[in-house]
Amino acid sequence: GDSVTQMEGPVTLSEEAFLTINCTYTATGYPSLFWYVQYPGEGLQLLLKATKADDKGSNKGFEATYRKETTSFHLEKGSVQVSDSAVYFCALSDPTRDDKIIFGKGTRLHILP
Amino acid sequence: DAGVIQSPRHEVTEMGQEVTLRCKPISGHNSLFWYRQTMMRGLELLIYFNNNVPIDDSGMPEDRFSAKMPNASFSTLKIQPSEPRDSAVYFCASSSTRGWNTEAFFGQGTRLTVV
Predict the structure, then answer these.
(1) Measured on CA atoms in the order B44, A37, A107, A43, is the torsion positive or negative?
(2) Chain A residues touching B109 at Cβ < 8 A
């Protein structure tokens, strides 16, 4: 079945460091891909998305490119801030599976000042 | 739109009691998801409705858990009887499967504590 695998955390970085959180997926169809962010005590919020191969999603300085050849959707940010500390979830929505949304296990990110 | 609305935000109950969690999805969305989040197990999909019909309930842990969606604007998740290991944050999310924007929108969650 469909699945999403993302790097385990926690990831700890200093402010202004470069961030990469890896995400790979398996799907029978051509899914849409998402990154969600969860701040402490809150629900998940959509951070960015890409709906087809080679699309780049971006928001708040974060970027991720839909790579069909490597079935990946890695999240990157050039210079992280303390306020980026949160849990990040990679997810997919597969139209061949009734658009059921499947999440990875999440990666906790700590940014040190 | 007010977004996905869940109630209550917090629930503390004694073991053995019935618990009902409620969710109002975003108007016009035709898919609804119930998730459970714990430190140990992360985010787990419990059940998924599409057009008010349960499509996949394979994540429902036991017969003690049941979910309904009587109409497009309301869903409930019921635990009867509740147990301490059910303590978690339960999220409801909704999405639209029409068009390209299929992302899920989450409610604020219900933090359930069973003592």
Answers:
(1) negative
(2) 42-43
